[in-house]
Amino acid sequence: MIKIKPFIVLGVILFAITLLVPTILVLPSIQEKKDEPNSNVESAEAKEPAIEVAVYRQNKQEVEKLDLEEYVVGVVASEMPAKFEMEALKAQALTARTYIVKRMMNQEKSDLPDGALVGDTIDYQVYNNQDELKKIWENAGYDWKKNMEKIEEAVAATKGQILTYKGDPIDATFFSTSNGYTENSDAIWPNSISYLQSVESPWDVNSPKFNGEVTLTVKEFEKTLGVSLGTGSEVLEDIKYTKGKRIASAKINGKEMSGTDIREKLNLKSTDFTMERKGETVYIATKGYGHGVGMSQYGANGMAANGKTYDEIVKYYYKGVEVTASDDMLTKYTAQK
């Protein structure tokens, strides 16, 4: 048997202690750091406060407050069919976010109750929350979770982006279906806006809303428009057309009316219409659905189906615009509050 000398054993023990002591001293410090909150993460979160949107819910007659991106999800889901192409949904997300950011920046006043920034009807942008969307989709036989995931993906892909013209958020107007052309803004509203000009939109012919028909008795027609029809089959005379191939104005048995006025009074889908009298009945045919200014939703979907990206879509329908980060604008908005 080999005998180990005592001084050698003592040396080994001292060496082991030398190695262990630093580790023992450091372990509590490491554990303390693990238990400490991440101050850098907290400060980063503190620098990015949620942007809140106060929506007046018309039916409930109350104000609902929610995050900006959650609001955009609710608008896109309410304004555009979830079955549409992803790039079309992204384009719709841009219009929805641009609308509300512009409203924030301009601090627009309205007849809404105090504390509300926007309404939830077509007078603003249609908005439904998640519970309401679930009910709507399930009643229509859709998979609401699948729809919601698709809408949320489209909104997330455009997060923080808005449409601007010369640095300012645009009036990102949109409508359902064109008659083959969009409309100049001044054909519908008082002012001509550079980025809201007529463009061709041939994809809309595939929309289920492209053609429309209305049938009225002569008495109903005369009473609604305040006119008296002649005996012939021709109803419209001296027709003047807009750049978007819609009726700017026309005469009905000598009375001149604007196309917009006729459309609104008769509740027509479009200002592209023809009329014919047969006996005691007036037959009206329309093309397109909506005012025609800005982005056509079915046109956007057609472009997306043909491989166009969302930024290509919006730049086609809104001339001269840019896709811009909204961070600086929203920072100024929160600073004003």
UniProtKB/TrEMBL annotation:
The keyword Transmembrane helix applies. Residues 57-165 form the Sporulation stage II protein D amidase enhancer LytB N-terminal domain. The chain crosses the membrane at residues 7-30. The keyword Transmembrane applies. InterPro entries: Bact_Sporulation_Assoc (IPR051922), SpoIID/LytB (IPR013486), SpoIID/LytB_N (IPR013693), Spore_II_D_firmicutes (IPR014225). Keywords: Membrane, Transmembrane, Transmembrane helix. PANTHER family: AMIDASE ENHANCER, N-ACETYLMURAMOYL-L-ALANINE AMIDASE-RELATED. This is Stage II sporulation protein D. It comes from Niallia hominis. The gene is spoIID.
